[in-house]
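Example: NAD(P)/FAD-dependent oxidoreductase.
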Amino acid sequence: MYVPLLIIGGGLSGLAAALRFARFIPDVLLLEQHSRIGGLNSYYYRNNRLFETGLHAITNYAPAAVKNAPLNRLLRQLKIKRKELDLHQQNQSEIRFLNQQSLLFSNDFSLFAAEIANKFPASYPGFQKLLQLIDQYDPFTPLPFVSAKKVLQEHLQDTLLTDMLLCPLMYYGSSIERDMDLGQFVIMFRAIFLEGMFRPGGTIKDLLDLLLKHYTDHGGKIKTKATVKRILHTGKKIHGVLLSDGQEIRCDYILSTIGSEETFTLLDEPSGLETLPRMGFVETIFELEKSAELKQGHERTIIFYNTAEHFLYQQPDPLVDFNSGVICLPQNFQDLPESSFQEVRTTHLANYSEWKSLQQDKSSYNSAKDRVALTSLAVAEKILGNFAQNIVYRDTFTPLTIERFTAKKNGAIYGNPVKIKDGDIGYDNLYLAGTDQGFLGIIGSMLSGVSIVNQHILPRL
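Written out as structure tokens, the predicted fold is:
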């Protein structure tokens, strides 16, 4: 079998790349090792309903009139109309530290700016200078690592405010411990604070079905349960892939969205990339009766919290660090269709190695998941009020869950801490897209796939 372009990985980055290419050349094949597309942003069925695995909220919201915004650029590239997505903006979100200091934000940036001006008046002039830096900074130019924490501290002269700004951006996109690359910080600051968050009216399945329909309508093909065993190459020239079932597929170009180390493993070549700890997380979904009543904070879309004296975004020594985390209420977006349930999702930092040590003993692993879920519940109830009596179903994901269903090394959803911004990993006709290229969030990962197709593949065919 032969195709001009072969894409490895059926997540959102791979889907967007495939759809963009198929608009010009329909002969493209998308390979997904799982039985279902979506990668980190997929779904499963339990308790007689659909649960989403990754879609808390989508960043980079922009009104239709802002033509150069990432969301609108992506929709133009894929020829998808905004009305097909049925966009719903967040209500309002919060950064809450030490149960004392709080910053509210929404898709109206003036709210966030006013919060900082009122609560950190001494830092506000520096914050305005920081905004100028963010406006002028090009985060996609390959540069050596620049500490975002150092830049923030120099501008704000306030450790608490620095940590409060970093907390949401780290939890929603940092692949390294204790800091962020300035370029990654700029991307996430624009995506979360300057633009904002939204979600489609339907489920992640509806979004995936929409993308897949556009793709197949253009003649694109997809093969699920297709595990790539090896990428075939002579020197730096790619010839195709060998699947685990023995099938060989030849191609002119490969776009890999599965991660840098994962791609080099298929090449049977060392990556040469620096080895750094990868960030892992646990997430628990609590499904509640619709009638459940939550106290102050129930109207928030997302609450990013920290209860420790200092915010530490790092791999914890125990299984999980409950001192900080994310509490998301996915029903709290404006004008969402009426639902028969409520949902609370909690996310915390986790230690992959500690979870891995429990893997061989299913009873110990499940007991650990139960303990984590109950502790996370207690943390959430301190903020939202008691809701344990209203829980009708719960489920907990660990880094091992992510590794099992997505093959992400160490179950690290943000991939390798070392990013390859231009997607060039040193081969003539093989490129990288997705998280390890450094584009973050759902919109960012999709633009990543589109950009590689536009810059490196379509011009050469």
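The CA atoms of residues 32 and 129 lie 45 Å apart.
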